[in-house]
Amino acid sequence: MTDDTPTLAHGDEYVVLYTGGPNDGQSDRRISTDGGWDEELTVLALVSGKETMENYNAVSWTEVGGVYHVTYAYDEAESEPGKEQGALGFND
Questions:
Q1: Are 26 and 43 in contact (CB under 8 A)?
Q2: How far is CA 82 from the centre of its chain?
Q3: Per-residue pLDDT tens for 41-80?
Q4: Is 63 inside any structural domain?
Q5: Which pick of 41, 45, 68, 90 has the fewest CB atoms within 10 Å?
Q6: How far apart are CA 40 and CA 86, in angstroms?
């Protein structure tokens, strides 16, 4: 993201907010293992009855009550099932 991204301590928890894709509007909690948050996430999702690997990229963050909230945007190009199956109804 940017150089002003804060440093988290090993074991600090942060909140993940998903936008777009099959996880749109959902949140999760993750633990920092390397002093920051993940720049990208791959999550397992059930789409049309099939398990798929869906990719999300960190796009912004904010601090709320001493806890970092990181927003991740759906990356359709890097996710399954891919463009060969067409729009799945959750394109932004």
A1: no
A2: 18
A3: 999 988 788 899 999 999 999 999 999 999 999 999 989 8
A4: yes
A5: 90
A6: 23
- Alpha-carbon torsion (33, 34, 37, 39), positive or negative: negative
Count of the separate structural domains present in the chain: 1
By CB atoms closer than 10 A (0-12, 13-18, 19+), residue 34 is exposed
Evaluate whether residue 5 is within a structural domain: no
In a domain, 89, yes or no: no
Domain membership of residue 50 (yes or no) is yes
Alpha helices in 1-92 (DSSP H): none
Quote the CA–CA distance of 67 and 12 in Å, as a whole number: 9
Distance CA 76, CA 83 (A): 8
**Whole-number Å distance between alpha carbons of 57 and 25:** 15
Give pTM, 2 decimals.
Answer: 0.81
CB 48 within 8 A of CB 82: no
Adjacency order of strands within the sheet including 50-64: 27-31, 13-19, 67-74, 50-64, 40-47
